[in-house]
User: Fold these one by one.
Assistant:
Number 1:
Amino acid sequence: MTTATKPTTAIDLEHRLALYRSQVALRLFETRAYDLFLENLVKGTSHLSLGQEAIAAGVAAAMRETDWTFATYRGHAHTLARGVPMTPVLAELLGRANGLMAGKGGSMHLTSVEHGVMGSYAIIGAHLPIACGAAWSAQYRGTDQVAVCFFGDGTTNIGAFHEALNFAAIWKLPVVFICENNLWMEYTRTTEVTAVAHPAADRAGAYGLESILVDGNDADAVYDVAARAIARARAGEGPSLIEAETYRHGGHSRADPGKYRPDEEVAQWKAKDPVPRYRARLVELGVDEATLVAIESEVADEVEAATEAAKAGAIPGEDLLMKDVWANGGSSWRN
């Protein structure tokens, strides 16, 4: 098994500052989403990735604009990391007409084809075969696009996981599978119902793939391993399976207080919080405090502006009820 620790790819300071800004943006955005949920402004539930920001930021930084992202219902961070503006994402959470999908998708179905975000999927494991289909299309058309597919540790016990891995390996598809292992399958500890210690990495060998384990709370390590896997896929060398170990700070969803997790475990992982950890690294590298404060202030202002713009959005009208339900945009297709 390959455990990615110290990056082998040179990362310049400008790139690191961009990585820090991305992580801060994801943290402040989801913190605000949580506050708005408590104010009953977020419609439906939401699944936050507070504590997991380094994965979304690190992988997105390694992708090209033409590549594709496939995410789970815990997809806010992945959507934003690909460059989707905050306002339409936050407005979508609020169910407003100025939302990313005019308020029809909500928190669990964020999609922006323009930014390569090919959907957030609420059915566990459903998007892995779809990511294979996108990768197959790139292979067939002769483009150099790569599909990057994120999923949780619980997905590794779903049939679609094994079917997708097998299919991708057989056809040497340009797809990178990334397991965000936050140790808990909703309310159940993953190791209690999984036959191997590392649910993704330990199974990679069954499909002829390298077992790759990375610290999912270290944006540099994530970027490095993702850059190599994506380059490998782009060069026609086939798929990769990466397991990124991380931890969600809160419960499975906003309706879950997460009390089933031991306090000591939560404290241990919060001590490895990716955002202050990366900030400390930048300070060690000689970045002055004023630069970091300026980044944090700019992001905070962006969140405030997005909040006000999202709140000001109109409530969707009846004219949107049947829009995009069928291919022709209406319900009269049967006639």
Number 2:
Amino acid sequence: MNLTFYGGANEIGGNKILLQDKGAKIYLDFGESFDFGEDFFYEYLAPRTANGLEVYFEFGLVPKIPKLYSKDMLKLTNLKYEKPDIDAIFISHSHSDHVGHLPFVDEEIPIFIGHGTHKVIEAYHKLYPQLFSIGEHNNINLFKSGDKIKIKHLVIEPIHVEHSVPGAYGFIVQTSKGAIVYTGDLRMHGPMSEMTMEFIEKANKSNPIALLCEGTRMSHETEHNFTEKEVEERIDKIIKESKGLVLGYFSMVNIDRFMSFYNAAVKNKRILVIDTRLAYVIDNLKEKIKVLPDVRKDKNIRIYFRLSKSCTFSEKDYNIWEREYMDKMITYKEIAKNPKNYVMHLGFYRLIELVYLRPKNADFIYSSSEHFYEGEENEEQRKVWENWMSHFKIKFHKAHCSGHASKQDIIEIVRKINPKLLIPIHTQNAEEFKKFHSNVKIPEKGVELNV
């Protein structure tokens, strides 16, 4: 029984892990690395999507593996198409570093996805068809936490975990040698931490021979591991003290963060204003996530319609799916009249709305990835953002907590699961795992690791 890491080894993201055991072959995730192609491509210098994997193979960006990719993806390559020999691909959650390369694989390979993850994927593909797609697949299977899925002699049990996106899972895989546990991405400091606790408990009971454990935040000691509750408290304080419009940015699929902003807005007797895209996401997830408000009916929510085409806010100016929300329409005119009545979601590519809103004494709460503030690659965008804040004299705040477990929580997770072998993944600091476990194997990209 062996594992081959085609991604996620000594890097954060890009998980693509092949498990082979007595004739059974499954992948755990099939993601794209965060730095995928950045050494060779820039803006409009990019591979032609219609040409398949030809350019990706040229630069070694996608592993050249037979019996895996679709005929269409191989048409201009020197890798001959053969019928796939992969029994299944299991997806832990919807982030691109876990699903991004699914469009490359053969359509006949069975894909197993959590029912919540599938909803997120459908919503994002509807909104951004050119940017987000998992490709065409003839055999998509939905699972829920606790299901037992048999693939030849393997039995795979998905168990929900808490992450910054809904519908995230870890897996327990029963093999001929014993249980292999895969964490996916998870955390312990949000409102649904009991899901991660359930995963840990079941993983421990499986008496695992190996644990594939994420370590995104193993790079440094955290002075304070902010919780989602503390983030909500900070947002509440900023809103309470604000003398004008409060603006905020968070990822559209970070449901916990949406609820933090919603709760803080309601507590301060303000209306939460979201754009049509965020309204569509929340509307489509509320069936799966009962805590979510009904954006069509909730009196604490209004839906922002941008100025478009006719400049009259006419129904014909908007997509068909947007028109369903016109009963809850609010425009810049209404917000500008009474800015203290509102908290408004506003992302980087919607900053143009500030020209119409013309806010005074406004506050902006940045509540998304810390990565925005790190590294030279974000410098240009950061500068533009700062210029907009400066121009409109908007006070800038940060209020965020990570979607990944802290270093101390990872140590505790490993201790409680108690695997015989620990394999660090999704981390740039794999050596740190050796400090708290006696049997650690650090995987190498593309190299088989026997278990």
Number 3:
Amino acid sequence: MNIIWTRSIVSLALLAALSALVGAFFGVRIALAFAVVMLVVQSFFGTYHTQRLWRLLDAPVYGEVPSALGIWGEIYYRLHKLAKRWHAQVRQVEQQHSRFIQAIQASPNGVAMLDDHDQIEWCNAIAETHFGLDAKRDLRQHITHLVRRPEFVRYLNSHHYEEMLIMRAMGMNRRHTLSVQVFPYGDNRKLILTQDITELERTDSMRRDFVANVSHELKTPLTVLSGFLETMRELPLDEADRARYLEMMDQQASRMRNIVRDLLVLANLEGDMRPPGDELLDMRAVMRHLEDDAINLSAGRHRITFNSDEALTVAGAETEIVSALANLVTNAIRYTPDGGTIDVTWQREQDRAVFSVRDSGLGIPAEHIPRLTERFYRVDRSRSRDTGGTGLGLAIVKHVLQRHHAELDVKSEEGRGSTFSVRFPAVRSALRKSVAV
């Protein structure tokens, strides 16, 4: 027997006992009257609390529990426990939902949810950016009323979502490429996932260009070598012509060796996951080495100056740093016309060591500067091969500086020359016989 029946029986038993007691003292009529009055009071008491419970259920307020005597107190108590348990479950679901939303918001991909009429139910911040939406303003709007690209509308209406849609657009002075894919779920609802693949396409384009450029760079000397070999094999040549042809063949073979060498250097830099060393370089010796090489390469065709802070040095892998700095000096000599000036400096800027090469060459158009460190990227293909470069020097510079957490800054103006500056981080910059700065 549960507590409700127990309490009801006990209540009736007490009423009967009291009525019998009243009857024993005051007679049967008084006892009956007393019993009727008590039943009426109990009825009004039950009606009052029934109405009170009705109001509570109609407009519940969490945490407020009415007090009452008897069975109604027990009802209110159990109702409070039930509400508390439900409230805890609701809060748990809300927290899980909040964490789920936060996780989707943190996703690098765009997520948009559509109802069965292709109206927007929800989207994260990335989807807002990709589609130009406002999650609050555009709620319950048909997505094709907001994203009106014809290819997107056709894709959404096709109901064939096995393949993703590629959307290209221009914005903020750069081209954006999005991949869009729809996943049906539930009752005709749709989940749209978007991803910005601009950098992936750029990387893939660079890979294709790299393969094409390597093929082209190696094809030219191979063609020259093949031509000369065929000539020497089939035609009678005097010693002067034979010597001239052999020298030209040696130049082309040397060019191929340099390309392969630089490719191997790049491969080693990219594949070496070990951090560069922390040995302090003898920058006085490095600067003397760079100056000697510059003078020999220029052969008196340029005015070259070297100015350096002999107390300033840097920590890192010596062969890598020397290779990067030498590439900058060599490029300045190769691309500066005869009679031009080249100024090389090694100095402190606040707490950083800075290596700069300034030339009076032809300068570089602004649109080419962001791509200078790409492999085989050439500003002027018609004259770049005449300089003897492989087209990989600045790519090597970029990878060396990345490994040393240094920065390459390029400033150039057409007809007025260029300045290439390498800024080493403070943690790698130091003064001889002094604490690191």
Number 4:
Amino acid sequence: MCILFFGVGGGVINGATSALISDMSNDDKKIANLNLLGVFFGLGAFCMPIILSTVDQIHYVKVINVVAFLCILLAGIFLLISYPITVEKEKISIQLIPRFFKNRIFLIICFFLFFQSAFEAIMNNWTVSYFIQHLQVDQKQALVALSFLVLGMTLMRILTGGVFRKLSPKALLHIAFVLLFLGGTCLYIKQPSPYYMNTFGLFLIGAGLSPGFPVMLGLTSNMFKETSGTAFSFVMFIALTGNIIINYLTGILIEFFGVTVFVYIIFAMIIFMIALYSYIKNEKKVLT
């Protein structure tokens, strides 16, 4: 139940903060600003594996308790501050759900994020096992390697929010898919220096995963400007469903075929995402 509450809370924070940033941004700055928001998600995610690699496993709960306490303090701050009028007026309405199902492009975006979320989940949940069992490294080395996944994602979002700010969504996604394929290839390579090559692969995969959510959430916000909060909630529901289903299936496949199947699942995720993107790309009014 504790893990369930963590998941629900995280899902609410992810969706609500993304909707808030989107509502406060101009159309031409939404994707860049969502990327900057992602930088702060990435900083937290980058720090945790590093912290956990420096403490004994018996102290993990203490680390979680400290983070939980900090979250409660921040929640108090958000209860006291005021929000833009346009944001406060908007209400979440389930009456809009039938409208979402009638929008084919929106559903494709949802299922792109279905696999994007699943991709991020399996990388976070199975990378350490892959490094320990496949490369025969200890847990601390595996956690350090995992931090490079988040480092790649964070640095790419910094670049996207700054240097690459004027790049089109198409260009960002093209770069992302190249990085994902290169990262998957590095992760597959066994010799020479597999640990360092595989760690570099994680860095490239993190960078490749970076634009997915900001770009697709930016497109969603442009499609549903007056009801972005409800649209984001629907998107996050589909995305987190993929997170759960694919993560569970990955566990089953690894149990039956061994941890080496992890790399093949990664390439399958990339192929699914490219196929869905190809469909979205044909809609000139949506992705430019």
